[in-house]
Amino acid sequence: MAAVVRASEVVKRWGATTALGGVSFEVGRGVTGLLGSNGAGKTTLIGLILGLHPPDEGILEVLGLDPTAAGAQVRERLGYVPEHEALPPDVRAHDLVRHLAEVHGLPRRDATARASDALWHVGLGEERHRPVGTMSTGQRQRVKLAAALAHDPALLLLDEPTNGLDPLQREDMLALIRRIGTELGIDVVLSSHLLEEVERTCDAAVILAEGTVVASGTMDALRAGTAGLVVDVDDEGGAEVVAAGVRARGLEAAVDGLRLVVPGWPDTAADAVRDVAAASGVGLRRVQPRTATLEDVFLASDGHHRAGRPFVEGRQVATADQRTGEGPPA
After folding, report:
1. What residue ranges do the domains of the chain occupy?
2. What b/e readout covers 307-326, taking b as 16+ CB neighbours within 10 angstroms?
3. What is the pLDDT of residues 151-169, one digit of tens each?
4. Dist. CA 31–CA 206, nearest whole Å
5. Interior CA angle at 75 toward 80 and 125, to 5°?
6. What is the mean pLDDT of residues 133-152?
7. pLDDT tens by residue, 19-28
8. Can you tell me the distance from the alpha carbon of 222 to that of 216, in angstroms, rounded to the nearest whole number?
9. Are 301 and 214 a contacting pair, CB within 8 Å?
10. pTM across the whole model
């Protein structure tokens, strides 16, 4: 299957509030980050993927199915770890995971075995018979994860899975998520507002801002779109001269003392810098590609969005008319 989730111009409104304003993207195999600030529309989108509420416009496919028309079939093949915790404190972890596996249709014997396996996978094999209420925050997060894995889903949805965890627990959780997406072969959508978390864990990302997808693609493709060139010159006046020449060729350029930064494709930027420097007689000390980070991608895409020019893998998309909120109003 080319895409595990495919959205085309999906719109979702809660009353007068537009939560998603015509989003289009694809989620492929592996671990994909759903990145955006609070209120960007991440939780609303997860609800649509689960089939809990229908889109008002557009087309959404999950594992090749329409979650609105075939919600039960879709949810059979999904695992979901919600952001908020609502676990019964007096129930043993194994009993809870087994029960939820039975809810997904597994026979009692199979559900019992799968519950044990899932709890071992998340590092709670020795703790599986403890009541959930006696566990730490990190352990309870792992119980939720085990419950989402026990029925062997094709796609795992994680909504802010590191919330409330200390740094060590967070590191362990991210490593576990990465292992699930590689060793266990389960596709994962990780919803987060933390750039570094997505960059370290995910193969691809979908970036949301105010209910609009402003960028999506593999991590390498996203970074390449915001890469560029770092140029050191002999004198400050030379940096300004080269910057002016580069801007005249339609590229952006920022000067910081003897250093010039030219965003864009490194080869294109290098050709422009070389030609301008040669024509103006400016001496170059160093020219090297700049390594882009996901923060660079986010800032660049958010800047395009605020300027009315959001992009998804290089193409223009419609902007949302209204500021969004996450989920239905209270």
Report:
1. 5-77+154-222+297-316, 227-290
2. eeebbbbeeebebbeeebbb
3. 999 999 999 999 888 888 8
4. 11
5. 45
6. 94
7. 999 999 999 9
8. 7
9. yes
10. 0.76
Separation of alpha carbons 59 and 57, rounded Å: 7
Domain 227-290 adopts which CATH fold?
Alpha-Beta Plaits (3.30.70)
Kindly tell me if the per-residue pLDDT of 317 is higher than 70: no
Topology given in CATH for the domain delimited by 5-77+154-222+297-316:
Rossmann fold (3.40.50)
